[in-house]
Amino acid sequence: MTTKKLAAGVLAAAAVALGAPATANATIVDPWVICNGTNCDSSAQGDITWHNRTANVSGIIWDQGFGSTTIKFRAYANGKQIGPEVARTANDETSDPNVKSPRKIGFPMGDTNLSGGIDEIRIWICFTTCVDSTVEYRDR
């Protein structure tokens, strides 16, 4: 049995993580929620659908107030980052329909040729700026 984990990091706020046990061929859906600020003015939520070696991320980003909200995703296998970081931004102050808040997101992560596949996706929420050195995450 393989353990699929979703570790979520939040800049200067809290950290969120969700665990997902899975067998080699099972498809597991992991819900995730992440927010920034005292009242969660900026937030995102969605699902990660775990597959044999990859995962699909889907969700929605909300942005309120000055600036924008960016959500970053990184896939890992045994602690090593696999593939590029994926970032999506929402902004309630724009008329651009591609980034207007609320913004729906969806994309695959992982490598179909990676033996064992990815076992973790970390999620960061960034309000206006992101600083990786202040990211926190923990397992649930």
What structural keywords apply?
140 residues, mainly beta, four-stranded antiparallel β-sheet, elongated
What is the ordering of alpha helices and beta strands?
Answer: EEEEEEEEEE
Query: What is the averaged pLDDT score?
Result: 77
Q: Which class best fits the helix and strand makeup?
A: mainly beta
Question: What is the terminal-to-terminal distance?
Answer: 18 Å
Number of separate structural domains: 1
Question: Quick one: how many beta strands?
Answer: 10
| Strand portion | over 45%
Main beta sheet: 6 strands, mixed
Protein name: Secreted protein
Signal peptide: 1-26
Region (Disordered): 86-106
Keywords: Signal
Description:
Residues 1-26 form the signal peptide. Residues 86-106 are annotated as: Disordered. This protein is mostly beta strands. The chain is 0% helix and 59% strand. It has one domain (2-132). A hairpin with a 4-residue loop joins strand 1 (2-11) and strand 2. The chain starts with a strand and ends with a strand.
Task: Note the topology.
Blueprint lengths: L1 E10 L4 E7 L5 E9 L5 E9 L3 E9 L6 E9 L2 E11 L12 E8 L9 E8 L7 E3 L3
Parallel strand pairs: 1-9
Antiparallel strand pairs: 1-2, 1-10, 3-4, 4-5, 5-8, 6-7, 6-9
Q: Care to give the gist of this entry?
A:
This protein has strands spanning 2-11, 16-22, 28-36, 42-50, 54-62, 69-77, 80-90, 103-110, 120-127, 135-137. With 140 residues, it is mainly beta.
